Amino acid sequence: MQRIEGGALRIDGVAIAAETREAVGREAAELIAARGVRPGIATILVGDDPASQVYVASKGKAAAAAGFHSEQHRLPADTPQAKLMALIGRLNADPAIHGILVQLPLPGHIAATTVLEAVDPAKDVDGFHPVNAGRLASGDAGRALVPCTPAGSLILARRAAAALGRDLAGAEAVVIGRSNIVGKPMAQLLLAENCTVTIAHSRSRDLPGVVRRADLVVAAVGRPEMVQGDWIRPGAIVIDVGINRIAAPEKGLDAAGRPKTRLVGDVAFAAAAARAGAITPVPGGVGPMTIAMLMRNTLTAAQRAAVR
Questions:
Q1: CA–CA separation, 146 and 7 (whole Å)
Q2: Lower CB count within 10 Å: N or C terminus of the chain?
Q3: Can you tell me the distance from the alpha carbon of 190 to that of 187, in angstroms, rounded to the nearest whole number?
Q4: Do 155 and 200 sit in the same domain of this protein?
């Protein structure tokens, strides 16, 4: 980690994700050599959403780099739900596939909850199935597949605490956001670290005051730069999960004559970095860890399948 001039340590998610992917690759090679089992992941993309196409391609590249077997199933936007469910059923039964990822969002005519619940919990590498959510919530994270973004965020928080000479145990943590994908599982993971956890959200009374108590802030609310610098307790660790695209007129116009854009997080980075002890940038913080943890979950699912 490097210190931002006059401020916090910059938590380098790119470097830590690379370390994670390298470790996964080594362990995958060991699994292949010892058991003859190659981790396999299947991604399903319904429709032609440009952002989803980029995400699926990135996941495919990461899987190939780790030595995994990788399949990509691209279906038209008008695919009937029954056809999608049949594909999931076939992948559930395929011993070469250990992880199944259904790229969200799905077209409006498909019930996302029904589809996600059709995935075998043992192959649910996104960690969204109620069985995995229940295991995590009941304190049985060791048998769960944990959602990738919270799992990656926890690794970054641990690394930041170690760099600052601290322990997460006993820390007061505030998670801003209550989604099933990030906020709730993040809170469960921090409870398992023996943090004192508050889940805050857009309707919390005196949200700035709540955040100012925190030794650790995890911002996952989806609002650009909502968390202001003066909300941050001096020396706090800040994990910014937000990825928001906003207009950047200072960068000029694109080929179509529209203002160019830039990515920002849920935290006003410069102001927060002047007060925090350590902080993740956007981009380059939590984002790379999400795909790294997807590879980790796929490897874990393969390892468990190999000993069943």
A1: 32
A2: C
A3: 5
A4: yes
SS (H, E, C) 96-113: CCCEEEECCCCCCCCCHH
Tokens of 250: 């200072």
Phi, psi of 165 (to 5 degrees): 75, 35
Q: Are residues 106 and 178 in the same domain?
A: no
> What is d(CA 292, CA 4) in angstroms, rounded to the nearest whole number?
25
Tens digit of each residue's pLDDT (9 = 90 or more) over 184-221: 999 999 999 999 999 999 899 999 999 999 999 999 99
Residue 307 is assigned to a structural domain of this protein: no
- Kindly state the tokens that stand for 268: 């006003």
SS3 124: strand
| Structural domain includes residue 75 | yes
- Alpha carbon distance 104, 55 (integer Å): 10
Residue 183 lies in a domain: yes
Q: What is the pTM of this model?
A: 0.94
**What's the rounded Cα separation, in Å, for the pair 218 and 289?**
15
> Residue 106 maps to which CATH number?
3.40.50.10860
Q: What is the C-alpha separation between 181 and 119, in angstroms, rounded?
A: 16
* Biggest alpha carbon–alpha carbon distance for the chain: 58
Active-site residue set? 59, 103, 126
Round the CA-based radius of gyration of the chain to a whole number and report it.
Answer: 20
Read off the CATH number of the domain in which 244 is found.
3.40.50.720
CB 153 within 8 A of CB 218: yes
The whole-angstrom separation of Cα 119 and Cα 104 is 14
Domain hosting residue 56, numbered range: 36-120
pLDDT tens per residue across span 113-156: 999 999 999 999 999 999 999 999 999 988 999 999 999 999 99
268 and 184 housed in the same domain? yes
Are both 76 and 188 inside the same structural domain?
no
Conformation bin of residue 240: beta by default, left when phi > 0, alpha when psi is -120 to 50: beta
Q: How far is 246 from 169, CA to CA, in rounded Å?
A: 36
